[in-house]
Amino acid sequence: MKDGATPNGLRHQRHLAAFTLVEMLVVIAVIGILAAMLLPALSKAKQNGLQISCRNNLHEMGIGFTLYYSENKEYFPAPGSKTAYGPQPEDWIWWQQDRDVNQSSIARDIGKFNAKVFTCPMDKDALALQTQGELADDPYRYSYSLTSYDLTSTSNNPGMSTIITKTRQVFPFKSTSIRNPSAKIMLVEESRETINDSRWVPVEVSGSGSGRHTTYNYVTDRHNGKGDVEFADTHIEAVTPKFGQDPTNSNPTY
């Protein structure tokens, strides 16, 4: 072999090495394109999985409510009001930080309390609050609330919870009093904008005439613009916040 000559085998190896580098770059580019195409689908699949967990939570709580009122002459538990009526022994969940949540009416009926059952896995605010100790404003650390209209001017309880005042006046509400239970929201995945206790007041009207004012507690929109709710017949749907603002979908007496 002459000086400076390149053996055929070595030249062939260099050719293969150069080709492999180009091929690798092509493969990396293809993988990047495929990843960009697959990520939205994977993200959607993950969100769907988390929503299934949310619905399973509502299903389990619904069983607890069914057991509760079947054992209590069809009466609903109290709503767990923060300010309007205050905490009561009959509250469906003892959510306040100075109470033993295991003694809750519904927690007792579904076994030992598990925060995951009362929390949507997509509710990051609730999950964060659960890692913190006592807080001055005593926030609600879970995701779901019970439909509960205020007493009327004639002290009638529209439902869906049993109202007990701070002076222990009891205004019971029975499950058998619900008109068209398949169309009335019982448990709601409430928006973090309005949830401050375990009581969902869909529509509240105060004042009269020009001073009349309407406020709403909203259904969340964390599941692609919708939130999960359980109706009084225990079936579960995802509905829009606007759906929750219509009292015909939540007021048991309509």
**Percentage of residues assigned to helices:** 25-40%
| Category by helix and strand content | alpha+beta
Tally the structural domains: 1
What is the overall pLDDT average? 88
Shape: elongated
Report on this structure:
- The protein is an alpha+beta fold and 254 residues long.
- The chain has one domain (8-249).
- 31% of the residues lie in helices and 13% in strands.
- It has 4 helices and 9 strands; from the N terminus they run αααβββββββββα.
- A 5-stranded mixed β-sheet has the order 5-1-4-8-9. A two-stranded antiparallel sheet has the order 2-3. A two-stranded antiparallel ribbon has the order 6-7.
- The N and C termini lie far apart (101 Å).
- The model has no long low-confidence stretch (mean pLDDT 88).
Q: What are the defining features of this structure?
A:
alpha+beta, two-stranded antiparallel ribbon, 4 helices, 13% strand
Summarize the entry for a quick read.
With 254 residues, the protein is α+β, with helices and mostly antiparallel strands. It has one domain. It is built from 4 helices and 9 strands.
Per-chain topology:
Layout: H1 8-71, H2 105-109, H3 124-129, E1 144-147, E2 163-164, E3 170-171, E4 185-189, E5 199-200, E6 203-206, E7 213-216, E8 227-231, E9 236-239, H4 241-245
